[in-house]
Structure formats: C-alpha cells, structure tokens
Amino acid sequence: MSATTNAARDRAMTPEERKVILASSLGTVFEWYDFYLYGSLAAIIGAKFFSMYDETTRNIFALLAFAAGFLVRPFGALVFGRLGDLVGRKYTFLVTIMIMGASTFIVGILPTSDAIGILAPVILIVLRLLQGLALGGEYGGAATYVAEHAPNNRRGFYTSFIQITATAGLFLSLIVILATRSFTGEAAFADWGWRVPFLVSIVLLGISVWIRMQMEESPAFRKMKAEGTGSKAPLTEAFGQWKNAKIALFALLGLVMGQAVVWYTGQFYALFFISSILKVDGFTTNMMIAWSLLLGSGGFVLFGWLSDKIGRKPIILGGCLIAGLSFFPLFKLLSAEANPALSQAHQTIVTTVEVDRSSCSFQFNPTGTSRFTQPCDIAKARLAALSVNYSVVDKPGQRDAVVTVGSQPPVSTTQPNFAAAVGTAVTAAGYPAASNPTVVRMSGPFDIFREQVAVSIAVLTILVIFVTMVYGPIAAALVELFPTRIRYTSMSLPYHIGNGWFGGLLPATSFAIIAQTGDVYSGLWYPVSFALACVVIGIFMVPETKDRDIFADDLGASRKQRGPHALEPESSLP
C-alpha cells in the first residue's frame, strides 16, 4: 500500500464528514430516547397495563415487557443488518427510525388494562417488539457508518460519540419526564401525565427523519458497490462460514456479554434498585440518575480516545473486572446513604419464612401465564415488595407460610388480612415506614451539595464511569473485527444478543433472584458472574484490533474480483 494511500486514510476528518456523523448521532439519540422512555417509567407502566397482578408480579411483568424489546433485537439485527449490507446504511436508518417513532407514539395513546383488559398489555408488548426490531437494526448501522468515515488512528474516538447516544437518549428521557412531572404534579403525572413524553416523540420523529434525509451514504459502502465487491448473501457469509461465525461468537462472549451486564447494571438496574428497593421518590431518583449521567458521560469519549492509544481490550475487559469486583460494596454503600434506616434494618432485623421449601416457586415468568399462588410465594412476594431481607426455614409438610419479623408475633398466610398484618409487623420491628425521614430526598434540581445527596450521586457516577469504560470502545472493537461486505450484519448480531438478552433480561432476572433468595443484594450475582466470565474469555479468545486497517479486506476482495493485476501499475500489465 502506498504512502499516499496511508496518508489519505489516516487524515483528519473533514468538516463535511463531521457534519454527517453529527447528524447520524443526533438521530440515534432520538431513537434511544424513544426506547428508554419505557424503562424510565417501568413502575407506572406496570400499574397501568398490568393492574390485574399483585405489586411484585406486576413489577416483574413490567420489566419483562421492557425486556421484550431487548429479546427481539437480535432478530432486528439480522433483518436490518442484511438490508444495510445489501442496499446501504442510509436507507436502513430511515426505516428503523420510522418504526421506532410510530411505536412510541402509539404507547402514548394506548388505553390501559382498566379500559380494555388483557388487550392493553398484549398491544403494549407488540409495540415493544417493534421497537426492539427497529433498534436491532439501528446501532450496527450507526456504528458502521461512523467508523467507515473515521480515520484509522482515531476510530475509537469518533465512534465513542455514537456510544454517548444511548446515555444521551436516557438522559433526554429523564429530563422530559422530570419537566412533565414538575408541570403536572405527581398525582396528575401518575394519572395521565406519563403519556406526554411518549406523545412528544412524534416531534422528535419528524426531526430525526429530516436529519437522516440529509445524510450521505458511507464512502466505504459506495466504494464497495462501485467495485462490485459486496456480499450477495450477508447472513450466509457472516454466520454460515465458521471463519466468520467464530469471530462473532467470541466477540459476544469475550466483549459484549460483559459490556452489556455492566451497562444495564450501572444505568437501569441502579434506577430500579433506588426506586423499588430503596423506596426513593420518583423525582429524586430520576434527578440523581440524571446528575450521574451528566457527570460521568464524558468517560465515553475519554475511553474511546484512550482505546486508540492502548487498545480496546485493556479498557473493556478492565472495566468488566473492576465492575464485577465492586458492585456489591457500591450498592451496599448506596443503600446506606440513600436509605440508612432501611440499610440498618437489613443488618439488624432477622426475618424468617417457615414453610415447606418444596412448595416455593422461582418467581420468574417470561410468558406472563403463571400466577404465584402458593402460600410460600405469597409470603415471599409480600416481603420482597416491602424490601425486607428474609430467609426461608424449611418445614417439611407445612403448607401455610408463617412469617416472623424480629421479635414480632408470627403472621400466617391463613390470616385473611395477611398482607396488612405483615406490613404492620415489618414496621413495628423497626423497618422504616413510608414516611421515613432518613431516605434521600432532593428539594430541587440543584439540591446536590448535602452529604447524603452528594454521596449517593457519587456512587451512581462511579457506576456510570464503569459503563463508559466498557461501552466507549465497543463500537470500534466490533467494527474492526469484520470486513465492509458483511460488517453491518456481523457486528449487529453479537451486539444485540449481548445487550438484548444478557443485558435486557438483567432487571427482571435480578428482581426474581431477590424474591427467591430474600436478599436485596443477591440480584447482583447475575451481572457479576457474566462480567467476570467475559474477562476470562476475552483475554484468551478475542484479538486486539486497535491497529487493524478496516479497508484491508476490501482491497483483497477487490483484487480477487478484478484479477491478480488489479493493483499493479498499468505499465506492468501485459
């Protein structure tokens, strides 16, 4: 390869290319905004569309509906990845944003289960599936599009701006939600105001479509099309040939799996833990998350830039390792600061459930068809909803569950007022009541300088920094593993299996683990296990790609298509 060619490829990006990439990033921010509205409003969504269930089951179903969008993302990656490799990145972008925006808007006008019964959650899940399909085609295209514009020696830095879009979309959704809450008040927001952020998406859809209409096709894709070196069957070439499929497999298990669980723990499970486990009010929860995102999101660009210097693997796998080793102490510190009375109760009040252990279920129901009606399940669900730590004492042959909280009189599930009686016993034993004055509470957006608020935000910011370590360089790492002809398809599937399945199922699975074990921290074993496993696999099975020329395979394919003398000077041809 000539020095001129090297210089052309390593040059700084032109203003026009920066403008195109900015347009791509902004459109992706709006798409993430649409997708994350549901996650930010999971508790209200559960109450509105799954009102036929008890609180614990409702929370699980609400999170599973959130996860439904993630579960189908790999299928969206296959459909739109193939389309993107065949007809182009730009046109695929337009399709995905239209599907996403329309689905989000419809959620805003969808009647609740009180109005149309079981049809409401069914339609909601269908809309989440459509959103997931669209997002499955979005990320791979955006990352590929930006990477194919970027200079070789700055690919990590430029693709890091696409990595910011997910957090920016979450941040935007939180800001819109907070503004709506402030304008309508809590009561009106819970009644009808929650619909406003979904309805606003129609405006963002119009802006996003206009932005994407201004975009030009990727130069690498145009060059590939002009030379006729594109793949005629991207799916078969990417996953039907072991030489390519094994790269996708190791990328999934040695990079994306750990990145996904660290990301969803730091942003989504943390939000759910604060609101549902620690019982922090909605305004304070969203505001603390928003501040942590604002303070920590610069790490995406920092670690993307750093990966151009020292490599993708050290940063991604290092982030997985540090996160895996520190999640437990960080979440315990968060509990101690955000709700000290509850944290103290967890340490000092012994709660037991005496029952035949064989009658207890694992309260995880992906299909939504099971009801947890055994006495053991009813008792555990009630304690989990109250954020009580408990243990199950096996009493073979005892069908009814007997709950003992501290020194309070035992409460049996045979009592007609069991739920109320357990709540009374929990409060009497020393667990904080709903009006707990020690729980963290912000009086306004800038009430961040009191110690309790500041420390809570600091812990959340550390979790966001872990997210930026694993997520900032991931796009560059994945793009560099595959050639242009199958890049969109090949990188999209492992990314969306990792984030859609390993990550998307994290909140629901972790909550079910808590209900099963009786320990509010036990749900963290899910991300810790996968993050540490990813470190081991990544070290041995994933190559470092920092210095890889993503155009090299394209040159080889072009030479093969055009003959052995394609790159030789004309004077040397016979």
Strand line-up in the sheet with most strands: 2-1-3-4
Oligomeric status: single chain
The outline comes out as: globular
Helix content: over 70%
* Main beta-sheet annotation: 4 strands, mixed
Query: Which structural class matches the secondary elements?
Result: mainly alpha
Q: Segments where pLDDT lies below 50 for 5+ residues?
A: 1-6, 557-574
The share of residues in extended strands comes to under 5%
Tally the beta strands. Answer: 4
H/E series: HHHHHHHHHHHHHHHHHHEHEEEHHHHHHH
Mean pLDDT: 84
Total helical elements: 26
Using only C-alpha atoms, the radius of gyration works out to 25 Å
Describe the SSE topology.
Blueprint: H1 3-10, H2 15-40, H3 42-49, H4 55-71, H5 73-87, H6 89-109, H7 113-116, H8 119-147, H9 155-184, H10 186-193, H11 195-213, H12 219-227, H13 234-239, H14 242-277, H15 282-296, H16 298-310, H17 312-338, H18 340-348, E1 351-355, H19 375-385, E2 391-394, E3 402-405, E4 411-412, H20 418-429, H21 451-471, H22 474-479, H23 487-503, H24 506-517, H25 525-541, H26 552-562
